[in-house]
Specification:
The chain folds into two domains: about 170 residues, 3-Layer(aba) Sandwich (Rossmann fold), CATH 3.40.50.720; about 90 residues, N-(1-d-carboxylethyl)-l-norvaline Dehydrogenase, domain 2 (Orthogonal Bundle). Helix content is about 50%, strand content about 10%. It has an eight-stranded mixed beta sheet, sandwiched between helices. α4 links the parallel β4 and β5. About 35% of the residues are buried.
């Protein structure tokens, strides 16, 4: 059982360390706030006194901090100890941040994988939980069985160190708009004296429908052919007025939709009115020019 060190014990980091401990891996943990390690020690983890102690304890170092900058800062005092070890980062950040961290790790003689957990902490360790990684192929091959403890759907995207961060941001872009839409709906339902919980089943079905459309839209985008429009840009454009009416009737602020409405209007103006809504991709390739403040 491969010894592993987990650095960063927020809710996700704690879930990662818990999964390793329960799978039988000798697990060392470290956090800036030592008290966060106490529940893990009770499970059988070893608490390192310093970050350098944590790094030297294992050949596999898994960090779960907020950003790539935070990761490099936290590991700074242990930089020399990283030589020859595998560093796996599971944090948010841009592709540029992943490339910078990969270069930093290489300069220290460490082998590097950037990764992302595509689920909530409670799902860590489940057979269908998705984690994807990019970077050193040999590191992934050597530690794949250990990393699979964190989720059964474990994928290596390629040797380019920034691919996991790219997909993390590309897929993650869907989260806030989807949640904001649900929150707007919840506020509108409550304005009628109903509970937000009454819409959960219907919202779930709606998300299932959206999921079923993703392969269709992806194919249209990859082919650049938007002419088979089951849902056209003009159809969405007509719905703009409905959003305004809902806001006026319920007193719910729908202003957050304005940039999305503008995107749809720009697509129609560009000649995509009768095309599939996936043609918005073409408009997104050419961002609107915004005048700089004087």
């Amino acid at each position: 059982m491969t010894p592993v060190t987990v650095i960063g014990l927020g809710s996700m980091g704690t879930a990662l360390a818990t999964a390793f401990v329960r799978a039988g891996h000798p697990t060392t943990v470290w956090n800036r706030t030592p008290a966060k390690a106490e529940p893990l020690v009770a499970l059988g983890a070893r608490q390192a006194r310093t970050v350098e102690d944590a790094v030297t304890a294992s050949p596999l170092i898994v960090t779960c901090l907020t950003t790539f900058d935070d990761t490099r800062t936290a590991l700074g005092p242990a930089a020399a100890a990283l030589r020859g070890r595998a560093l796996v980062t599971l944090n948010s950040g841009s592709p540029a941040g992943a490339r910078e961290t990969a270069a930093w790790a290489a300069g220290l003689g460490a082998r590097f994988l950037a990764g992302a957990v595509k689920n909530v902490p409670a799902a860590v360790g489940a057979p269908d939980t998705l984690l994807y990684y990019s970077g050193d192929q040999d590191v992934f091959a050597q530690f794949a069985a250990t990393l699979r403890v964190l989720g059964g759907d474990t994928v290596h995207l390629g040797t380019q160190s920034d691919l996991a961060a790219l997909y993390e941001m590309a897929v993650g872009a869907m989260l806030l708009p989807a949640l904001a839409g649900f929150f707007q709906g919840a506020a509108a339902v409550q304005a009628r004296g109903l509970e937000a919980g009454t819409m959960v089943r219907f919202a779930g079905k709606w998300l299932d429908m959206i999921k079923s459309l993703l392969p269709v839209y992806a194919d249209e985008i990859d082919r650049g052919d938007y002419t088979d429009a089951a849902s056209s840009v003009n159809l969405f454009l007509a719905g703009v007025a409905h959003d305004a009416e809902l806001g006026a009737e319920t007193g719910v602020d729908t202003a957050w939709l304005a940039p999305l409405h503008d995107l749809v209007a720009r697509a129609a103006a560009a000649g995509h009115g009768e095309h599939s809504i996936s043609a918005l991709t073409e408009v997104l390739r050419q961002p609107a020019v915004t005048a700089l403040p004087r």
